[in-house]
Amino acid sequence: MTPTRAALLSLLVGVLVFVLKYLAFYYTGSVALYSDALESIVNIVAAGAALIALRVAAMPADPNHPYGHTKAEYFSAVLEGVLILFAAITIFQEAYKGFLHPKELKDLNIGAIISLVASGLNGVLGTYLIRIGRAVRSPALTADGRHVMTDVVTSVGVLLGVMLAGLTGIRLLDPLIAVLVALNILWTGWQLMKESVGGLMDAAPKAELLEQVRHIVGQHGEGALEAHDLRARHAGRITFIEFHLVVPGSMTVEEAHTICDRIEAGLKETLHEVEISIHVEPESKAKHHGIVVL
User: Fold this and answer.
1) Which residue has the higher pLDDT, 265 or 204?
2) pLDDT tens-digit profile of 101-147?
3) How far apart, in whole angstroms, are the C-alpha atoms of residue 119 and residue 138?
4) 238: CB partners within 8 A, 6+ apart
5) pLDDT for the residue numbered 245
6) Which is it for the CA torsion 223, 229, 235, 237, positive or negative?
7) What is the residue extent of each domain of the chain?
8) Per DSSP, what are the bridge partners of residue 244?
9) Contact present, 103 and 171 (Cβ < 8 Å)
10) Which pLDDT score, from 0 to 100, does residue 233 have?
11) In this model, does residue 294 exceed pLDDT 70?
């Protein structure tokens, strides 16, 4: 399934889950279940934003955007983080009302069944979105999937707490659980926004990726002397890699180009969607550090 279709599926399932969670709140009158339903609205809006972002990110490069549009996905993830923060504030407000005027819970069995069905749907969806998002290197899908999985954990915790409140008769447990839900999604929103802003700011990728690049260059750069000044960044699903390749001064342009082609092929075979820039230099420019070519 393409990333766009996965986002569309997320949107449709999100609407269904929201309807189920709102029914659970309707039957029980639980503030905690209301907060759980409210978070599903965030899922719906976020899935819609991810769908738009993925469509934009898939557009080819043009004169105004020579590096493509893949960073559009980060805006979706940032928006999702902002929406999560907004949902948390709304939940705090409802919890405050619940502390002031605790409500008696009703029809907990019906509400529990409906909530469990909604959580099961979310669990399947979240697992699928994370798997697809990682496979195609999509920040929007991965963020959406992680949020959905957080929603599953939250929903299960809410349901257990609401059932406990019903069994013990302690009404204040209901708004207290809503507060815990809000704190949990605040943390999720902060993590999403931090990662997405890092992508927009061209933060360096993980050290494991850079080490993998060094190994590939060293293995496929036969004929060159060294490579240095390696830099890399992510832009959505594409990784941009650049470095300087030092070759013997007597080497012809064609021979140096052949080495570059071999390195690029090795990087693309392992890392797939990459854009590579190699600056070829004579041995007088060697820095005697960086990547030693085997």
Assistant:
1) 265
2) 777 778 888 888 998 999 999 999 999 989 888 887 777 778 778 77
3) 24
4) 68, 70, 137, 273, 274, 275
5) 95
6) positive
7) 3-200, 207-292
8) 228, 279
9) yes
10) 87
11) no
Do 207-292 and 3-200 have the same topology in CATH? no
What is the rounded distance in angstroms from the CA atom of residue 282 to the CA atom of residue 291?
A: 15
CB 25 within 8 A of CB 37: yes
Q: Give the number of other Cβ atoms within 10 Å of residue 206's Cβ.
A: 10
DSSP state of 65: B
What confidence score (pLDDT) does residue 268 get? Answer: 92
What's the one-letter identity of residue 253?
A: V
Q: Whole-angstrom Cα distance, residue 97 to residue 2? A: 44
Classified as helix, coil or strand, 279 is strand
Report the alpha-carbon angle 141-70-230, nearest 5: 110
What six digits make up the tokens of 170?
Answer: 């302690």
At 42, the amino acid letter reads: V
Please name the amino acid found at residue 288. Answer: H
Q: Are 45 and 75 in contact (CB under 8 A)?
A: no
Q: 238-247 and 274-282 as β-strands: parallel, antiparallel, unpaired?
A: parallel
Give 100: exposed, middle or buried? Use CB within 10 Å, 0-12, 13-18, 19+: exposed
**Fold annotation for 207-292:** Alpha-Beta Plaits (3.30.70)
Beta carbons within 10 angstroms of residue 120's beta carbon: 13
Amino acid at position 210, single letter: L
Q: What is the pLDDT of residue 251?
A: 94
**Residues recorded for the chain:** 294
Question: Which tens digits make up the pLDDT trace of 143-164?
Answer: 778 778 877 877 887 788 788 8
User: What's the token pair of residue 47?
Assistant: 């899935």
The whole-model pTM stands at 0.63
What CATH superfamily is the domain 3-200? Cation efflux protein transmembrane domain (1.20.1510.10)
